[in-house]
Protein backbone atom coordinates (compact mmCIF):
# COMPACT_ATOMS: atom_id res chain seq x y z
CA UNK A 1 0.00 0.00 0.00
CA UNK A 2 1.25 3.48 -0.91
CA UNK A 3 1.49 5.82 2.10
CA UNK A 4 0.92 9.51 1.51
CA UNK A 5 0.50 12.99 2.97
CA UNK A 6 -3.05 14.28 2.45
CA UNK A 7 -3.06 18.06 2.18
CA UNK A 8 -6.83 18.41 2.59
CA UNK A 9 -8.40 16.65 5.59
CA UNK A 10 -11.30 17.23 8.02
CA UNK A 11 -11.53 15.85 11.55
CA UNK A 12 -11.91 17.00 15.17
CA UNK A 13 -11.97 15.84 18.78
CA UNK A 14 -15.33 14.15 18.38
CA UNK A 15 -14.20 11.60 15.80
CA UNK A 16 -10.43 11.60 16.22
CA UNK A 17 -9.93 7.94 17.11
CA UNK A 18 -12.20 6.71 14.34
CA UNK A 19 -10.77 8.92 11.62
CA UNK A 20 -7.16 8.06 12.55
CA UNK A 21 -7.97 4.36 12.21
CA UNK A 22 -9.52 5.04 8.83
CA UNK A 23 -6.58 7.14 7.67
CA UNK A 24 -4.14 4.45 8.74
CA UNK A 25 -6.13 1.79 6.89
CA UNK A 26 -6.07 3.94 3.75
CA UNK A 27 -2.33 4.65 3.88
CA UNK A 28 -2.62 8.28 5.00
CA UNK A 29 0.36 8.83 7.29
CA UNK A 30 0.13 12.63 7.59
CA UNK A 31 -1.70 15.64 6.28
CA UNK A 32 -3.26 19.07 6.78
CA UNK A 33 -6.50 19.27 8.77
CA UNK A 34 -8.65 22.18 7.55
CA UNK A 35 -11.56 21.60 9.92
CA UNK A 36 -9.90 23.16 12.92
CA UNK A 37 -12.18 25.70 14.55
CA UNK A 38 -14.49 26.25 17.49
CA UNK A 39 -17.82 25.62 15.72
CA UNK A 40 -18.07 25.32 11.94
CA UNK A 41 -21.62 24.62 10.73
CA UNK A 42 -22.20 23.10 14.19
CA UNK A 43 -20.26 19.99 13.16
CA UNK A 44 -18.00 17.74 15.14
CA UNK A 45 -16.65 19.86 17.96
CA UNK A 46 -16.67 18.81 21.60
CA UNK A 47 -14.43 21.60 22.88
CA UNK A 48 -12.58 24.70 21.75
CA UNK A 49 -9.72 24.86 19.30
CA UNK A 50 -7.01 25.38 21.92
CA UNK A 51 -8.19 22.21 23.62
CA UNK A 52 -8.01 20.36 20.33
CA UNK A 53 -4.46 21.57 19.67
CA UNK A 54 -3.51 20.29 23.12
CA UNK A 55 -4.93 16.86 22.31
CA UNK A 56 -2.95 16.75 19.06
CA UNK A 57 0.24 17.67 20.90
CA UNK A 58 -0.35 15.16 23.71
CA UNK A 59 -0.86 12.37 21.20
CA UNK A 60 2.36 13.18 19.36
CA UNK A 61 0.60 13.64 16.01
CA UNK A 62 3.55 15.49 14.48
CA UNK A 63 2.76 14.49 10.89
CA UNK A 64 -0.85 15.73 11.10
CA UNK A 65 -0.81 19.52 10.70
CA UNK A 66 -3.59 21.73 12.05
CA UNK A 67 -5.02 24.86 10.37
CA UNK A 68 -7.54 27.25 11.94
CA UNK A 69 -10.94 27.96 10.36
CA UNK A 70 -12.48 30.95 12.16
CA UNK A 71 -16.13 31.95 12.01
CA UNK A 72 -15.65 34.65 9.37
CA UNK A 73 -19.31 35.70 9.51
CA UNK A 74 -18.56 37.48 12.81
CA UNK A 75 -16.56 40.05 10.86
CA UNK A 76 -19.81 41.50 9.55
CA UNK A 77 -21.22 41.77 13.07
CA UNK A 78 -18.14 42.94 14.95
CA UNK A 79 -15.95 44.70 12.38
CA UNK A 80 -12.46 45.53 13.59
CA UNK A 81 -13.14 43.99 16.99
CA UNK A 82 -13.33 40.64 15.18
CA UNK A 83 -10.10 41.37 13.31
CA UNK A 84 -8.25 42.28 16.49
CA UNK A 85 -9.52 39.16 18.24
CA UNK A 86 -8.62 36.95 15.27
CA UNK A 87 -5.08 38.37 15.15
CA UNK A 88 -4.72 37.57 18.85
CA UNK A 89 -6.05 34.06 18.24
CA UNK A 90 -3.58 33.52 15.41
CA UNK A 91 -0.66 34.40 17.68
CA UNK A 92 -2.04 32.25 20.49
CA UNK A 93 -2.73 29.22 18.31
CA UNK A 94 0.62 29.54 16.57
CA UNK A 95 2.20 29.13 19.99
CA UNK A 96 0.16 25.95 20.45
CA UNK A 97 1.36 24.40 17.18
CA UNK A 98 -1.23 25.54 14.62
CA UNK A 99 0.32 26.21 11.21
CA UNK A 100 -2.24 27.94 9.01
CA UNK A 101 -5.52 29.74 8.38
CA UNK A 102 -8.47 28.73 6.21
CA UNK A 103 -10.48 31.16 4.06
CA UNK A 104 -13.61 29.62 2.62
CA UNK A 105 -15.84 30.28 -0.40
CA UNK A 106 -18.31 32.37 1.63
CA UNK A 107 -16.11 35.36 0.77
CA UNK A 108 -17.23 36.24 -2.74
CA UNK A 109 -20.09 33.74 -2.97
CA UNK A 110 -22.26 34.30 0.14
CA UNK A 111 -21.09 37.16 2.35
CA UNK A 112 -22.32 40.71 1.78
CA UNK A 113 -21.24 44.07 3.15
CA UNK A 114 -23.66 46.40 4.92
CA UNK A 115 -24.24 48.28 1.65
CA UNK A 116 -25.27 45.06 -0.13
CA UNK A 117 -22.10 44.60 -2.18
CA UNK A 118 -20.47 41.15 -2.17
CA UNK A 119 -17.77 40.79 0.48
CA UNK A 120 -14.43 39.65 -0.90
CA UNK A 121 -11.11 38.46 0.42
CA UNK A 122 -9.31 41.71 -0.44
CA UNK A 123 -11.41 43.78 1.97
CA UNK A 124 -8.88 46.33 3.35
CA UNK A 125 -10.24 45.74 6.85
CA UNK A 126 -8.82 42.22 6.77
CA UNK A 127 -5.26 43.32 6.01
CA UNK A 128 -4.13 42.95 9.68
CA UNK A 129 -5.12 39.28 9.49
CA UNK A 130 -2.85 38.56 6.52
CA UNK A 131 -0.01 40.53 8.11
CA UNK A 132 -0.36 38.53 11.33
CA UNK A 133 -0.25 35.28 9.36
CA UNK A 134 2.98 36.48 7.77
CA UNK A 135 4.35 37.43 11.18
CA UNK A 136 3.85 33.93 12.62
CA UNK A 137 4.77 32.09 9.40
CA UNK A 138 1.35 30.65 8.70
CA UNK A 139 0.17 29.23 5.38
CA UNK A 140 -3.23 30.46 4.18
CA UNK A 141 -5.46 27.80 2.65
CA UNK A 142 -7.99 29.35 0.27
CA UNK A 143 -11.29 28.16 -1.20
CA UNK A 144 -12.66 30.78 -3.59
CA UNK A 145 -15.42 30.43 -6.19
CA UNK A 146 -15.21 26.65 -6.12
CA UNK A 147 -16.25 24.16 -7.28
CA UNK A 148 -17.08 25.27 -10.79
CA UNK A 149 -20.09 22.94 -10.81
CA UNK A 150 -21.65 24.99 -7.98
CA UNK A 151 -22.34 27.73 -10.54
CA UNK A 152 -24.88 25.60 -12.40
CA UNK A 153 -28.43 26.67 -11.36
CA UNK A 154 -29.87 24.26 -8.84
CA UNK A 155 -26.47 23.00 -7.70
CA UNK A 156 -25.48 22.52 -4.08
CA UNK A 157 -23.73 25.67 -2.80
CA UNK A 158 -25.13 27.74 -5.69
CA UNK A 159 -23.68 31.26 -5.15
CA UNK A 160 -25.76 34.24 -4.01
CA UNK A 161 -23.25 36.75 -5.35
CA UNK A 162 -23.47 39.04 -8.36
CA UNK A 163 -19.76 38.44 -9.02
CA UNK A 164 -18.45 36.02 -11.62
CA UNK A 165 -15.88 33.36 -10.76
CA UNK A 166 -13.26 35.45 -12.55
CA UNK A 167 -14.21 38.50 -10.46
CA UNK A 168 -13.78 36.51 -7.24
CA UNK A 169 -10.44 35.14 -8.44
CA UNK A 170 -9.24 38.69 -9.13
CA UNK A 171 -10.12 39.77 -5.60
CA UNK A 172 -8.34 36.68 -4.22
CA UNK A 173 -5.26 37.35 -6.31
CA UNK A 174 -4.93 40.91 -5.00
CA UNK A 175 -4.21 39.43 -1.56
CA UNK A 176 -1.88 36.74 -2.92
CA UNK A 177 0.11 39.25 -4.97
CA UNK A 178 0.27 41.77 -2.13
CA UNK A 179 1.82 39.16 0.18
CA UNK A 180 4.63 37.30 -1.60
CA UNK A 181 6.02 36.41 1.85
CA UNK A 182 3.00 34.19 2.57
CA UNK A 183 2.50 30.70 1.15
CA UNK A 184 -1.04 30.20 -0.13
CA UNK A 185 -2.53 26.77 -0.86
CA UNK A 186 -5.40 27.03 -3.33
CA UNK A 187 -7.55 24.03 -2.53
CA UNK A 188 -9.20 21.83 -5.11
CA UNK A 189 -6.55 22.14 -7.79
CA UNK A 190 -6.25 25.95 -7.70
CA UNK A 191 -9.93 26.40 -6.78
CA UNK A 192 -11.16 24.02 -9.49
CA UNK A 193 -10.31 26.12 -12.53
CA UNK A 194 -10.89 23.14 -14.91
CA UNK A 195 -8.21 24.12 -17.41
CA UNK A 196 -4.77 22.55 -17.45
CA UNK A 197 -3.18 25.41 -19.38
CA UNK A 198 -4.47 28.05 -16.95
CA UNK A 199 -3.41 25.82 -14.05
CA UNK A 200 0.14 25.77 -15.45
CA UNK A 201 0.22 29.50 -16.25
CA UNK A 202 -1.13 30.50 -12.85
CA UNK A 203 1.58 28.59 -10.99
CA UNK A 204 4.24 30.12 -13.24
CA UNK A 205 2.94 33.60 -12.40
CA UNK A 206 2.46 33.08 -8.64
CA UNK A 207 5.52 31.49 -7.03
CA UNK A 208 4.03 31.75 -3.52
CA UNK A 209 1.06 29.54 -4.45
CA UNK A 210 0.72 25.77 -4.00
CA UNK A 211 -2.21 23.47 -4.69
CA UNK A 212 -3.85 20.42 -3.27
CA UNK A 213 -5.05 18.07 -5.99
CA UNK A 214 -8.50 17.37 -4.59
CA UNK A 215 -10.51 18.02 -7.74
CA UNK A 216 -10.63 16.52 -11.18
CA UNK A 217 -7.31 17.58 -12.68
CA UNK A 218 -7.20 14.13 -14.30
CA UNK A 219 -10.05 15.16 -16.62
CA UNK A 220 -8.32 18.35 -17.82
CA UNK A 221 -6.12 16.56 -20.35
CA UNK A 222 -4.66 13.22 -21.34
CA UNK A 223 -2.73 11.27 -18.68
CA UNK A 224 0.48 12.29 -20.42
CA UNK A 225 -0.47 16.01 -20.42
CA UNK A 226 -1.50 15.92 -16.77
CA UNK A 227 1.68 14.05 -15.90
CA UNK A 228 3.84 16.71 -17.57
CA UNK A 229 2.21 19.52 -15.59
CA UNK A 230 2.44 17.60 -12.32
CA UNK A 231 6.09 16.87 -13.05
CA UNK A 232 6.79 20.54 -13.75
CA UNK A 233 5.16 21.79 -10.56
CA UNK A 234 5.72 18.75 -8.34
CA UNK A 235 7.47 20.70 -5.51
CA UNK A 236 4.26 22.72 -5.05
CA UNK A 237 1.64 19.95 -5.12
CA UNK A 238 -0.12 18.02 -2.35
CA UNK A 239 -2.55 15.17 -2.59
CA UNK A 240 -5.96 16.42 -1.39
CA UNK A 241 -8.70 13.94 -0.57
CA UNK A 242 -11.11 16.36 1.14
CA UNK A 243 -12.58 13.52 3.18
CA UNK A 244 -14.16 14.04 6.55
CA UNK A 245 -16.17 11.82 8.82
CA UNK A 246 -19.85 11.72 7.92
CA UNK A 247 -22.22 12.66 10.73
CA UNK A 248 -24.82 10.39 9.10
CA UNK A 249 -22.64 7.28 9.13
CA UNK A 250 -24.08 4.72 11.60
CA UNK A 251 -21.72 4.34 14.53
CA UNK A 252 -21.36 0.58 13.98
CA UNK A 253 -20.52 0.83 10.29
CA UNK A 254 -16.79 0.87 9.38
CA UNK A 255 -15.50 3.39 6.89
CA UNK A 256 -15.92 2.04 3.37
CA UNK A 257 -12.34 1.65 2.15
CA UNK A 258 -13.48 0.77 -1.36
CA UNK A 259 -15.40 4.04 -1.56
CA UNK A 260 -12.89 6.23 0.25
CA UNK A 261 -9.32 5.10 -0.28
CA UNK A 262 -9.19 2.57 -3.12
CA UNK A 263 -9.99 5.17 -5.82
CA UNK A 264 -7.18 7.36 -4.50
CA UNK A 265 -4.73 4.48 -4.50
CA UNK A 266 -5.62 3.87 -8.16
CA UNK A 267 -5.30 7.56 -8.95
CA UNK A 268 -1.83 7.66 -7.42
CA UNK A 269 -0.72 4.64 -9.41
CA UNK A 270 -1.93 6.36 -12.59
CA UNK A 271 0.04 9.52 -11.79
CA UNK A 272 3.11 7.45 -10.96
CA UNK A 273 3.06 5.99 -14.46
CA UNK A 274 3.30 9.42 -16.09
CA UNK A 275 5.99 11.25 -14.12
CA UNK A 276 9.45 10.67 -12.70
CA UNK A 277 9.89 8.79 -9.44
CA UNK A 278 11.33 11.96 -7.87
CA UNK A 279 8.30 14.08 -8.77
CA UNK A 280 5.88 11.42 -7.60
CA UNK A 281 7.63 11.11 -4.25
CA UNK A 282 7.38 14.87 -3.69
CA UNK A 283 3.64 14.84 -4.30
CA UNK A 284 3.10 11.61 -2.38
CA UNK A 285 4.99 12.63 0.77
CA UNK A 286 8.06 14.79 0.32
CA UNK A 287 6.37 18.20 0.08
CA UNK A 288 4.40 17.64 3.27
CA UNK A 289 7.49 16.43 5.08
CA UNK A 290 9.64 19.36 3.90
CA UNK A 291 7.07 22.12 4.43
CA UNK A 292 5.36 20.96 7.62
CA UNK A 293 6.52 17.78 9.33
CA UNK A 294 10.23 18.58 9.47
CA UNK A 295 9.51 22.13 10.66
CA UNK A 296 6.95 21.22 13.35
CA UNK A 297 7.78 22.58 16.79
Q: Give the overall shape, derived from the CA principal axes.
A: globular
Total beta-strand segments: 8
Whole-number total of structural domains: 1
CATH class: Alpha Beta
Strand order, largest beta sheet: 1-2-3-4-5-6-7-8
CATH topology: TIM Barrel
Report the portion of residues in β strands: 5-15%
CATH architecture: Alpha-Beta Barrel
Quaternary structure state of the chains depicted: single chain
* Average pLDDT metric: 88
Q: Counting H and I runs of at least 4 residues, what is the number of helices?
A: 13
- Report, as a whole number of angstroms, the end-to-end distance: 29 Å
Name the CATH superfamily classification.
Metal-dependent hydrolases
Can you summarize the main beta sheet? 8 strands, parallel
Tell me the Rg in angstroms: 19 Å
Unreliable segments (pLDDT under 50, ≥5 consecutive)?
A: none
Helix coverage percent: 40-55%
Q: Write down the secondary-structure element order.
A: EHEHEHHEHHEHEHHEHEHHH
Q: What class, by secondary structure content? A: alpha/beta
